[in-house]
């Protein structure tokens, strides 16, 4: 397992459709990083400035935007990746940004974009939020370690 340090913040760029094994691997990787960061924070003296840095950034792009669709149905025996990300986000106060243009092109919209583009409703899952690519650019400007799934 890679050690999370304050020198670099992992950025998970998730592009895989939620049905793809890489999408599930991204979630497991995020969980491991967040748990490791929590354990490290609990076991060492960390400066206040370091505590304010997120231990992990994620960004949903391309087909991964489907993860943010609250109307995505799957059978009961399938793992619900959307709910798993929502749980993780709540547990660790982790933002779940989704590229707005790739989301809209895949039929995923929030209230603001539905009104702006005269769509019949919104379907973005709770905890996910649509953002521009500038969010990704800002995450990449900081000292990050980019990992794509």
TrEMBL record:
InterPro entries: DsrEFH-like, Sulphur_relay_DsrE/F-like, Sulphur_relay_TusD/DsrE. It comes from the Bacteria. GO terms for biological process: tRNA wobble position uridine thiolation. The keyword Nucleotidyltransferase does not apply. It is found in: Cytoplasm. One of its GO terms (cellular component) is sulfurtransferase complex. Gene3D superfamilies: DsrEFH-like. Keywords: Cytoplasm, Transferase. GO terms for molecular function: sulfur carrier activity; sulfurtransferase activity. Its main location: cytoplasm. Belongs to the DsrE/TusD family. PANTHER family: PROTEIN YCHN, SULFURTRANSFERASE TUSD. This is Multidrug transporter.
């Amino acid at each position: 397992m890679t050690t999370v340090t304050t020198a670099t913040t992992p950025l998970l760029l998730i592009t895989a459709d939620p049905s793809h094994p890489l999408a599930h691997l991204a979630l497991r990787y995020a969980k491991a990083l967040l748990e490791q960061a929590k354990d490290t924070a609990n076991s060492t003296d960390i400066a206040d400035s370091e505590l304010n840095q997120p231990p992990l950034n994620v960004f949903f792009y391309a087909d991964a935007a489907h993860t943010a669709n609250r109307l995505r149905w799957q059978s009961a025996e399938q793992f619900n990746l959307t709910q798993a990300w929502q749980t993780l986000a709540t547990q660790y106060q982790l933002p779940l940004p989704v590229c707005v243009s790739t989301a809209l092109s895949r039929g995923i919209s929030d209230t603001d974009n539905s009104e702006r583009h005269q769509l019949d409703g919104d379907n973005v899952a709770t905890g996910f939020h649509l953002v521009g690519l500038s969010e990704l650019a800002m995450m990449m400007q900081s000292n990050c370690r980019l990992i794509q799934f």
